[in-house]
Amino acid sequence: MHVVRGKNIEVLFSTEEIARRNEELALEIAKGPAEDLLVIAILKGSFVFAADLIRALHKIGLAPEVEFMTLSSYGTGTVSRGVRLVKDIDSVVEGRDVLLIDDILESGRTLRFARNLMLERGAANVSIAVLLDKQNKREEVLEADYAGFHCPDRFVVGYGMDVAYAFRELPFVGVITGDA
Ligand code: IMP
Ligand code: MG
Q1: Which of 64, 79, 111, 176 is the most buried (most CB within 10 A)?
Q2: Rounded CA separation 44/92 (Å)
């Protein structure tokens, strides 16, 4: 348990656990389509995971190009929910092996949108790496090719993920359990 700015935060996945898992994920990714690899980090939540994962890829000899795309969900009802492209990548995708990196796969809407966009642009392969998989929240038929951990159905913060723009800087993934 950590106390951060007056909140009790329970650790779900520690810094060490995440670091170990990232090395395993990198080895799995290297076995897949990874020639001329274009990594696309989906902002904002994935920036810490992506930073660590690309360095784990480097350690085993891969040299991906790294890009960033900002996607945002809109709508709160079940009918109107969608995904909006806020900031696009600059690189050409046609013929490339693309690896999309996100923090959490939940409903699947964000990553389905990103994957379809890359396929429309002619990517040779599109694979998906996520740190956390909230499997029982899925609303789209979509699975990650590489998933760090199964995540319980709780709202998590840290390691890039926020609640109301806070707690992205925590070096672990945790859950706020109350006021300290
Ligand atoms: P979905 O798969 O399109 O439903 O959305 C997944 C996105 O929702 C992730 O990329 C996160 O940005 C956000 N998200 C889902 N669950 C959490 C959470 O527990 N904490 C922080 N962000 C979350
Ligand atoms: Mg996100």
Answers
A1: 111
A2: 21
Q: How many domains does the chain have?
A: 1
Residues of the chain with pLDDT under 50: none
pLDDT at 9 (0 to 100): 97
Per-residue pLDDT, 78: 56
Q: How many CB atoms lie within 10 A of CB 158?
A: 26
What residue's CA is closest to ligand 1, atom 4? 107
In the prediction, which pLDDT does 31 show? Answer: 96
For residue 33, give its domain range.
15-75+83-151
Q: Which ligand is in closest contact with the Cα of 168? A: 1
Does residue 10 fall inside a structural domain? no
Q: Using a 6 Å cutoff on CB, does residue 97 contact ligand 1?
A: no
Ligand 1 atom nearest 45 alpha carbon = 12
- Which pLDDT value is given to residue 74? 84
Any idea what the CATH number is for the domain that residue 112 is in? 3.40.50.2020
